[in-house]
Design a protein that fits this description.
The chain has about 500 residues and is of the alpha/beta class. Helix content is about 40%, strand content about 15%. It has helices at about 20, 35-40, 60-65, 80-90, 100-105, 125-135, 185-190, 200-210, 230-245, 265-270, 285-290, 300-310, 330-340, 360-365, 390-405, 410-420, 435-450, 455-465, 470-490; strands at about 1-5, 45-50, 70, 95-100, 115, 140, 170, 175, 195, 215-220, 250-255, 275-280, 315-320, 345-350.
């Protein structure tokens, strides 16, 4: 059996890091972990090829070759999916599609013949058997249970070229115990975190190491600390693994704000090699936190919580949202001031979007306020529902907020605020040849060619003189800021709506 696995193109968004990865001569931020994991569920004797459209073209000869095309996609990739499926039809290739895009909205793709909906571990054996036997495949294979992910195989790293990617990706847990109204994670993966064993995750890291990977690894969990006790057990194992292997791999992940309440957990993460954590901070508005049921962020000083994590040695990357029903016209000013005070350099600010099947989507549907499908990109200034705030005010205020946040003067000031709080400890990150080349490119692009050069050189010399250990991190953040600025400046007013 010959199987072609295809990962669709991701559009240019804050999350794509398109303009930053070029500084390190890479093509994408990370590989398609879902497809690599599904590939490991297929028989070893089958011939597999993976094409990631973020790093290479899908050629006609690729499409002539396989018996089946396996397509895995997220919501933001739907336009690329339609192009791929149309090309498969030209070559009369049957498509089996899975991933978040289809799990919550497969009905929108009648041109696709077969779907695998939900988590794949328990249903892939049936899919494989039907493919192997030559029986007619079912239109829908649907997972009815939350699988035990201790049975999840090591991803097929041999199917990708590491040189194309900035980070690798692994997963320790699925699910999140919280119940945020706008989040689709609990729709797809549930509210009871399920984890792999520490030995299982370390086997995946060893597999990466055997293939020569020495750089950052993103642990892509919905909430890395969803089950704190199991996370601590893993961290102790990772610390021992580092001592045994002398690995200089660094980690980043996603976690909830209650991480700041557990000094032991923070210390273990840093000792294990964690450098960054993405946290859903969302808003300084208490009313909005109540509205979206973000209870883990209530009754706390959010800026102080961020600084607690920074002092522990973690860079906080923050997610923020505007457009809640309770937001007033001053929300843009409040968000700007809050983000600047917190020192969250990497601030991903999005417009609230109603993702399919979420509690927010269901509520807005009941209220008759849903107006369109979500694009899956909450940073494209598009609304798919009728807001309480004036639509034009909300969209124009959002665009101006994002541009203002990434103006060189404001952004570099935020980096300096972060560096004052940050106390880097734990193992030092390995600096590669690509990192050195990125520094040199930044001198020219940010220090000579691009506007904001004065702010860049102030950051450069100030950090080198006052905080020399922070210097590589500061230049990395400056490069990321260039990407965010490019995306922010590309935001356009949406086309006028029909009356």
């Amino acid at each position: 059996m010959k199987i072609l696995l295809v990962s669709p193109r991701t559009p240019d968004t804050f999350w794509s890091f398109k303009h930053a990865v070029r500084f390190v001569s890479r093509k994408a931020s990370m590989p398609p972990l879902g497809l690599l994991t599904v590939a490991a569920m297929l028989p070893l004797e089958w011939q597999l090829k993976l094409v990631d459209l973020n790093v290479e073209r899908l050629k006609d000869e690729d499409l002539r070759w396989p018996d089946y095309v396996l397509l895995g996609a997220m919501l933001v990739q739907k336009d690329s999916v339609r192009e791929i499926v149309a090309r498969c039809a030209t070559f009369q290739k049957r498509v089996i599609a899975g991933g978040p895009l289809f799990t919550t909205g497969y009905e929108a793709f009648p041109e696709i013949q077969h779907f695998v909906l939900g988590e794949a571990e328990e249903i892939m054996p049936q899919v494989v058997e039907d493919m192997r036997s030559g029986r007619l495949l079912q239109p829908i294979y649907r997972a009815t249970n939350r699988p035990d992910i201790t049975q999840t195989p090591v991803p097929r790293w041999d199917l990708i070229k590491f040189r194309y990617y900035v980070t690798m990706a692994v997963q320790f847990s699925r699910g999140c115990p919280f119940d945020c109204e706008f989040c689709d994670i609990i729709v797809m993966n549930g509210r009871v975190p399920r984890t792999k064993t520490p030995a299982q995750l370390i086997a995946e890291l060893d597999a990466l190491g055997r293939r020569g990977w020495k750089d950052m690894v993103f642990i892509v969990d919905d909430n890395f600390i969803g089950n704190k006790q199991r996370t601590k057990t893993l961290l102790h194992a990772l610390i021992e693994w580092r001592r045994r292997t002398r690995s200089r791999i660094g980690f980043l992940t996603e976690a909830s704000m209650n991480l700041a309440d557990d000094p032991e957990l923070c210390a273990l993460m840093v000792e294990a090699g964690f450098k960054k954590v993405f946290v859903g901070i969302e808003t300084p508005s208490v009313e909005a936190l109540d509205e979206c049921h973000k209870l883990q962020n209530r009754n706390r000083d959010l800026v102080a919580s961020v600084q607690t994590l920074q002092r522990a040695g973690l860079e906080v990357m923050g997610g923020f949202i505007v457009g809640f029903d309770s937001d007033k016209s001053d929300i843009f000013k409040r968000q700007f001031e809050f983000i600047q005070r917190s020192g969250v350099a990497t601030a991903m600010v999005g417009l609230l979007t109603a993702l399919p099947q979420t509690r927010l989507w269901q509520r807005l549907k009941r209220e008759g306020r849903l107006e369109a499908e979500s694009t899956g990109n909450n940073t494209d200034a598009a609304l798919n529902f009728k807001p309480r705030l004036n639509r034009d005010l909300l969209q124009s205020g959002y665009r101006e907020l994002v541009k203002k946040l990434y103006e060189p003067r404001n952004y570099y000031q935020r980096i300096r605020t972060f560096l004052k709080s940050h106390r880097p400890t734990g193992p030092r990150r390995r600096l590669s040849w690509a990192d050195s080349m990125a520094f040199l490119k930044s001198f020219w692009v940010l220090g000579v060619w691009h506007r904001g050069r004065v702010g860049y050189w102030r950051l450069f010399w100030g950090t080198l003189i006052r905080h020399p250990r922070h210097f590589p991190h500061a230049i990395e953040l400056a490069i990321l800021g260039y990407h965010f600025r490019r995306v922010a400046n590309s935001l356009r007013a949406p086309a006028s709506r029909k009356p």
